[in-house]
Specification:
single chain; 428 residues; mainly alpha; Growth Hormone, Chain: A
Length: 428
């Protein structure tokens, strides 16, 4: 793989204010809520399978409907966010997904669960297009990977909160109450978002120095960029194929990891909380570390291209030991292997999510992220059906983990082939 060794700026970021980090805090909180709502069905899978007598393929089909909606919604929300902005776009997405989350409490059939998961997928698909649009509006390029890594770490916090809170609510009040209570509490975020978020030039809290720092990159063309121009660009497909190949691995962890711990290590709703907490705490560190490393390399003189791809290569190599997770008998050795893989995925994701803002003008970022998110969800749909068939026929995660351990290196090679220097795409 060829590498661009040209040097970038060594000028450190000035201390100009911290309002932009408050925005990251809001994005972090929303992403945590998003993943609590998303992951709950995976945590409750053994309970729901026992009550409704689902087999592996039925559960995979329910996951499939969520991912189908996510695929459709991601592209739609990418365009919506580019048109109406992050504030309104994020608020709309949050209302849809929180309502769908609470509607799980009245589901009684496979059709009912499929329907509410579909609606949840539509709403949750807006989280990353809106969040990344906000990062693009509030951060210069040299800080975006770090900011993205921080707010993306909310996904792991959500995954940590879920096994700590949901089993307790479920054991005390039932699984239906768990959906209602977690949904109702999360509405506090919507109030904070609509109250606090504005574009930088509309913010009364922002100093002139911080505004100048945020806007220090060259100005983008003001015109809207139509999808037809984006679909034909190699840079779009570099991002989209990276998402198509690696997003499904994270879906697998979210929706099937509790099931793996139950079947391989004989845990249950009362006991798989600590292993899941450890896994997602380490994942949080990986998300922040991946964004930090990329930004640090840029500050040390690496080009954006070299910094992003070096970090992604390290992450891709750290996922590969997942192929051994099925074969170890020790629970905690398995937890260590899985923790490394999930942390590496999050480090990878923090940089992959930054590529659209590296390669496209701000007006196109939401749409490109929408295209890539759709590709990732389609990959997740295919992988979910594959997982259901493998588990139903073979009853083992071995083949699933072999795929997970290999796709990141292949994806990085494709990204580099399609965009060897991460240059700005010509979409005018």
């Amino acid at each position: 793989m060829a590498t661009d060794f040209s040097q970038g700026s060594r000028i450190p970021a000035p201390k100009v204010g911290n309002v932009r980090w408050v925005i990251v805090g809001l994005l972090f909180a929303a992403t945590a809520i998003n993943y609590v709502d998303r992951q709950m069905i995976g945590l409750l899978k053994p309970t729901l399978q026992s009550e409704f007598r689902w087999d592996e393929t039925i559960y995979a089909d329910i996951v499939f409907w969520f991912q189908l909606a996510y695929a459709v919604g991601y592209m739609v929300f990418g365009n919506i966010v580019d048109r109406v902005g992050a504030r309104i776009g994020y608020g709309l997405a949050f209302v849809i997904w929180t309502g769908a989350h609470m509607l799980h409490a009245i589901a009684h059939s496979v059709f009912g669960f499929g329907a509410v998961r579909f609606l949840l997928g539509i709403g949750e698909s807006g989280n990353f297009p809106a969040g990344l649009k906000a990062v693009t509006e509030w951060f210069p390029k040299k800080e975006r990977a770090f900011a993205t890594g921080i707010f993306n770490a909310g996904s792991n916090v959500g995954a940590i909160i879920t096994p700590l809170v949901v089993p307790a609510i479920t054991l005390a009040y039932g699984w239906r109450a768990a959906f209602v209570i977690t949904g109702a509490v999360s509405l506090l975020w919507l109030v904070a978002w609509l109250t606090l978020y504005r574009r930088p030039r509309e913010s009364k809290q922002l100093s002139g120095a911080e505004l100048a720092y945020i806007e220090s990159d060259p100005a983008d063309p003001p015109a809207h960029v139509p999808w037809a121009r984006l679909i034909g660009r190699r840079e779009t497909w570099a991002f989209a194929l990276g998402k198509f190949m690696t997003d499904p691995v994270w879906w697998m962890f979210l929706f099937w990891l509790p099931d793996f711990l139950v079947k391989r290590h004989h845990l249950d709703l009362k006991t798989f909380g600590p292993p899941l907490v450890i896994i997602y705490v380490v994942s949080d560190l990986g998300s922040i570390a991946g964004g930090w490393l990329s930004s640090r390399l840029i500050h040390q003189g690496f080009t954006i291209n070299r910094a992003r791809k070096t970090t992604m290569l390290i992450a891709a190599l750290c996922v590969t030991p997942i192929v051994f997770a099925q074969y170890v008998d020790s629970l905690w050795v398995a937890v260590a292997i899985i923790s490394l893989a999930t942390a590496a995925h999050q480090a990878w994701s923090a940089n992959l999510y930054t590529l659209p803002s590296d390669m496209f003008p701000r007006k196109a970022v939401g749409s490109v992220i929408g295209i890539g998110g759709t590709a990732g969800a389609v990959g997740g749909m295919i992988f979910s059906l594959y997982i259901g068939q493998v588990l139903e026929r073979l009853g083992t995660y071995s083949l699933i983990f072999y795929v997970a351990g290999s796709v990141y290196l292949v994806a990085l090679a494709i990204i580099h082939f399609l965009s060897p220097r991460l240059e700005l795409a010509r979409v005018a």
